[in-house]
Amino acid sequence: MDFELSDDQEALQEVVRKLCAGAFPMATIRSLEDRGGVERDLWRRLADAGVFSLHLPESAGGAGLGSCESVLVFEELGRALVPGPLVWTHLAAGIVDGAATGELVVGGVERRGPPGRRTPLVVEHLAALDRLLVLDEAGVWEVDSAAVAGEPVQHPLDPLTPVHVAQELPGGRQVAGPDTAAAWRLEGAALTSALLVGLAGAVVDTAVSYAKERRQFERPIGSFQAVKHLLADMLVRAEVARAAVYAAGAHLDDPGIGDVHRAIAGAKLMAGDAALANGKACIQVHGGMGFTWEVDAHLYVKRARVLDTIFGPVDAQAEAMAELI
Amino acid sequence: MDFELSDDQEALQEVVRKLCAGAFPMATIRSLEDRGGVERDLWRRLADAGVFSLHLPESAGGAGLGSCESVLVFEELGRALVPGPLVWTHLAAGIVDGAATGELVVGGVERRGPPGRRTPLVVEHLAALDRLLVLDEAGVWEVDSAAVAGEPVQHPLDPLTPVHVAQELPGGRQVAGPDTAAAWRLEGAALTSALLVGLAGAVVDTAVSYAKERRQFERPIGSFQAVKHLLADMLVRAEVARAAVYAAGAHLDDPGIGDVHRAIAGAKLMAGDAALANGKACIQVHGGMGFTWEVDAHLYVKRARVLDTIFGPVDAQAEAMAELI
Amino acid sequence: MNLRYSESEERFRGELREWLDRVLPTVGPPPAIDDWPGRRAYDTAWQRMLFEAGFAGISWPKELGGRGASPAEQLVFLEETERAHAPYVGVNFVGLLHAGPTLIAEATSEQRSRYLSPILRGDEVWCQGFSEPGAGSDLAALRTRAVRDGDDYVVSGQKIWTSHAEVADFCELLVRTDPDAPKHRGISWLIMPMDSSGLEVRPLRTIYGSSEFSEMFLDEVRIPVANRVGAENDGWRVAMVTFSFERGTALVSELLQTMELLESLVEIARSTGTEGARPWDDAGIRRELGHLAADLDALWSLTKRNVTQASRTGVPGVGGSVFKLHYSEVRHRLGDLALRILGRASLSFDDVGGARSGDQVHGWVHAISLSIAAGTSQIQRNILGERVLGLPRER
Amino acid sequence: MNLRYSESEERFRGELREWLDRVLPTVGPPPAIDDWPGRRAYDTAWQRMLFEAGFAGISWPKELGGRGASPAEQLVFLEETERAHAPYVGVNFVGLLHAGPTLIAEATSEQRSRYLSPILRGDEVWCQGFSEPGAGSDLAALRTRAVRDGDDYVVSGQKIWTSHAEVADFCELLVRTDPDAPKHRGISWLIMPMDSSGLEVRPLRTIYGSSEFSEMFLDEVRIPVANRVGAENDGWRVAMVTFSFERGTALVSELLQTMELLESLVEIARSTGTEGARPWDDAGIRRELGHLAADLDALWSLTKRNVTQASRTGVPGVGGSVFKLHYSEVRHRLGDLALRILGRASLSFDDVGGARSGDQVHGWVHAISLSIAAGTSQIQRNILGERVLGLPRER
CATH fold of B7-178, please? Predict the structure, then answer.
């Protein structure tokens, strides 16, 4: 039992952190607001760094890594606020040609309930997609994203996550069965929880820096207990959630150590809670400045809301946990 | 519209406050711990002051007052931590001879569910009672309290509220029908919410006094934001809940001003929340001393828990509110 | 302790309701949220209608053109206009509810007769220039400098969070006139014409993505000394008149809207999802909705207590901080619950799938501003702790 | 990043499990909670059994009679003893987990050879004399005075929150040896025999209604200078060795009990109430239970991270404060939920109606102590804010 990063894992984390710092500095992220969040050159840089092919065997051009590693990678992507259908393209690698290499941008959506009784589907990044995957009880379906009759939303919650609303989807080609769908739900939830915990940690850093610099009443605001304790609570949420998310990765790699469903439901729940609460707290620490578009604080909490709705929100995961006690 | 105490109401409040200070100083309350919480002489002093006959017409020896007034009186009783089946005896006045005058100590219990499917009943103060009233869907029943086969609980949660557990109750005499039962549920909830809001306010005072006196790190602990803000939140809870409780009294007196069911459900909910949260916060402010039996802080939160279970706990009231939106 | 409105209060209600029933059908739909000239025209036209019917400045004294209504009647006014979905105070907010009351309390009779009537008539619009980028919670640390030069002050600095600046005629401006005095003692309160040269207004985009507020950049703006309200360096006290009001009852009409927002959310919870799996079928969700209703009802009762206390004492009490703290917290809970109920529909500020989801998403963002604007929740807790509970100040 | 125990760790588990299976049937039921001599006898007998089987002091170095187990093996030990419902460390807590480790780190070899072995064998019981009525969160403000007189210190003062004092042989005592030095610099760490004259122990009743703790009144108690551990006036540093441990892993075995408490609550939620109206039929209650399970699982994972970090660096990290803050909050939520589920059965510390409700009510009270004892949640947040996040101290 050694539940910390190995040297290799630390090196991987460092590589991804550098990739994000180089390809996705905050100025670049902000510039993507007006470009739909996804930019093909940058997407290919992610692919070239191996972000989408982490799990593929080396013989298929991948890195042959496990979920502990993919969780670490996605944590860094979340921390850097990298937008786009990262999780879906990663899941698609090995099933949809061109996903792993970044030639295609592959998005996805979960479909619930019986045909005819479904509520409208909200599809992210539709305009930027080459393929849309649909996950339902029966399996995974590949849909021509250009054929989707979706209404673009004029004002998406997250400026980096444009969405369309589609009443129905065109029939697609089945690319995987229910077992894969079930496995994707687990892995999708684990990777999304990693993005969320990355966000939750990023805002601790952001808020702490601000609290050290910003002065009010002739003191840095971080010296006030009210602010200090807000920040301490943020740290606690991020650290506790990170432990849960890393454990989810470890369970995916080695199901013998415990109940993988429980580990992942717990991770998604804890990471969602942490990212949502920390995102709000980060704005609160920034005071009025946090309410301006120009300051980045709002982007984190908005992304956290988006990610919470993917692969099971907090409420659904809590219900799932209850059944597993 | 004039939603503050009238001169008469202020005078009444003052009278009850003095009664409590005289008959129920904290030393007396503490001395009742080993005497089952109810002491007949003190009970009669409450009756003599008119506490149980507030609503009775003056011709029947009562004060002919409304619910605005009884809410004020019960708030003071709650603030002073006066133990015993105050609400039940007050409800019983006019129906059970001797209740209004304090000759009898009348308790009560709510019975839910169909016969044979009922869970054990927890009865408060059984040993001190002369009569036990049972409230159910069909009405109000009077039971000879001496005939109740109840097991005394060795360690009650609230040392001032001894309880017995009874599997079933002896058949009783019906003393009122379903309409009275329904009215009692409303008035019982309103008066209990008044006791709760009294508690919620009392612990603000207690905690604030302590925070001004107690020094740590060469400063009164109340000068630390962490403590100060805890106390401010306590004040907010008490003030908001008080407004709801007074409104419940006003609605009972004048149903024309709005939905009395909603006003009372809201009051019981807000007062329960405030008393429970403030009770815990009061102990937290006292630190280790708050965890000692000797310091009074624990008595408030324990009483709050007892009162929350009477006439609909917070959860049930929230459900009731939802149906009334 | 009486929640029943008096006969005269009910008479006022009847009169107002009748008028609203008559005129509202003649009022068109509001302009788009970013159509500032349109909004000015719409809001001031409504103000003119109120004025002509005798409902303008209902809390203002009669001798200054107001209605001199009691606080209870002001509540009735808010209840009725909200119930009838009348236009909001909109761009007239600062004039009617901030600057106007300050002028009434502190201005010279010349100043009053120049400025008050145009506010009531909807002829002139005001904005507020208090906050600065470096002076948020610590407002008294403001650094916009005013240097006396003959009959003018020459003012340079930067202001933020100015609402309606694009369409305002005047600005209530706080400036530092004595940089050497302790920070609360060197401030003055000025009336700045918005067409002054040296003044630049830039829209400030908020996290909604829209520009409800502006920044103002002042570069040697000349403001006549005659435009000062109150004594030189006494502006902090003058401003506090407005402030206790802001913390007092400014959120009341919002509270009524929040009750509607909750009802709308209940409707969404009842009508979305599939049968047996609607959010409303979930006891936990129902309880959270019920809990929020209880909180809002309690805040409405608290408002009536605050109003009664204000009537009796003549000044708004500390109830304002109590209200604001709890109201902010309730709005956070409501916003979070709404987004959980909406699920994927929460990814859009626009309505999705026929449900009125957009209001809920906007409401979620609004909650974030509530615990910050007009004194953060942290500042409000300090106020309650120190001024009400008498706890010692920090060293 | 590996949650699988190594072969040697699993071998240790197997060995321990086999031994527990063999000996536990021979261990009788624990004595009543207020039977102190009985509890001492029971707990020390169990300690003796552990010692003879080679499981005593599993974290202590081998050369001092311990097992020298790795932190991971310590976790395995806690997992297995908890799973098997073995007796708790009980009255041996201070000796094994506080005083012992301090002596190992700071004592002279004479002191070690005198005191360590009897702790491991269950021959001698220790208690802790740190807190004072006036020195709670601000422990360094302690005022119990020790005045040097020849080869003795003469000690007078008052201590509080001493557990097991009635049955202890020695006390790890913090005293002030230099009243003129800054408060952290004038403290010394002494070994006080509990049969010293001038020492009076009085039971301290807690809000459970029972007396888990005592107060100690010291009136010119003579303690040999030879009983001092570490240098004179260096006792604060000596005590901190113990403290970081207390915040580090002392709550771990509790966490495992809390998981059982949650399972027991789920059982109550499933079995009480009437069909279709059981607490478990309520989606909101189910979610709250599920949420708590996620929190506890996460804390267990956090523990493994903390343990790994401690193994790698040799000292417990800040994970202890993170753990304690979140664990306290979770226990508050669990306690409140439990009492809501119990309803009227929550009015009793004893079981009601056949359900194991008493544990839940005790758990609710226990939560109240968790956010206070061993550093209030407020103090923990200061520690995290200043030592981990590097925020400036208050002035």
Answer: Butyryl-Coa Dehydrogenase, subunit A; domain 1 (1.10.540)
In this structure, whether the domain defined by D127-232 belongs to CATH 2.40.110.10 is answered with yes
What is the least distance, in Å, from the CA of A156 to any CA of chain C? 4
Q: What are the C-alpha distances in Å from C121 to residues A119, C43, C50? A: 49, 11, 8
Q: Where are the alpha helices (DSSP H) in C90-234?
A: 93, 100-106, 109-121
Look up tokens 């979610």; give the residue. D287
What CA–CA distance (Å, rounded) separates C91 from C163? 8
d(CA A66, CA A8): 12
CB contact under 8 A, B222 and C304: no
D113 dihedral zone (left: phi>0; alpha: psi -120 to 50; beta): alpha
Domain D7-88 and domain D247-387, same fold? Reply is no
Q: What is the mean pLDDT of residues B86-106?
A: 96
Instruction: Work out the minimum CA distance from B119 to partner chain A, whole angstroms.
Output: 25
Tell me the chain D residues in contact with residue A212 when contact means C-beta distances shorter than 8 Å: 390-392
Burial of A11 (0-12, 13-18, 19+ CB in 10 A): exposed
What phi-psi label fits residue C166: left (phi over 0), alpha (psi between -120 and 50 degrees) or beta?
alpha
For chain C, the residues whose C-beta falls within 8 A of a C-beta of chain D are 282-285, 287-288, 394-395
Topology given in CATH for the domain delimited by A180-324? Butyryl-CoA Dehydrogenase, subunit A; domain 3 (1.20.140)
Q: How would you classify the pairing of strands B131-136 and B106-110? A: parallel
SS3 A176: strand
Q: B273 pLDDT exceeds 90?
A: yes
Q: Which residues of A touch D288 (CB under 8 A)?
A: 318
Helix (H), strand (E) counts: chain C: 12, 8
> Where would I find the beta strands (DSSP E) of chain B?
106-110, 121-124, 131-136, 139-144, 150-152, 163-166, 173-176, 215-216, 219-220
Cβ atoms < 10 Å from Cβ of C280 = 19
Q: Which CATH class is domain D247-387?
A: mainly alpha
Residue-averaged pLDDT of chain A? 95
CB pair distance less than 8 Å for D288 and C283: no
pLDDT score recorded for residue D243: 63
**φ, ψ (nearest 5 deg) of residue A176:** -160, 160
pLDDT(D139) > 60: yes
Distance CA A250, CA A265 (A): 14
- What was the pLDDT predicted at D318? 72
Chain C contact for B312, CB < 8 A? no
Beta bridge partners of A124: A163
What tens digit of pLDDT does each residue of D76-111 get?
Answer: 999 999 999 999 999 999 999 899 999 999 999 999
User: Strand ranges (DSSP E) for chain D?
Assistant: 126-129, 145-149, 152-163, 170-176, 187-193, 199-204, 213-224, 228-229
Closest CA to C367 of B69, B197, A284: A284
Q: Which two tokens stand for residue B94?
A: 């006019």
| Cβ within 8 Å, pair A313-C361 | no
CATH class of C7-88: mainly alpha
Report yes or no: A253 and A66 within 8 Å, Cβ to Cβ.
yes
Query: Which helix or strand (DSSP H or E) is residue B77 part of?
Result: helix B67-79
Mean local confidence (pLDDT), D58-71: 91
Say which of C73, C106, C246, C288 is annotated catalytic: C246
ipTM above 0.85, yes or no: yes
Please report residues of C whose CB lies closer than 8 A to that of D282: 283-284
Residues D177, D230: contact at Cβ < 8 Å? no
Active site residues of D: 246
Average pLDDT, chain B: 95
CA distance A246 to A238: 12
Place B157 in a pLDDT band, splitting at 50, 70 and 90: very high
Task: Return the axis-axis angle of helices A297-308 and A178-213, rounded to nearest 10°.
Answer: 160
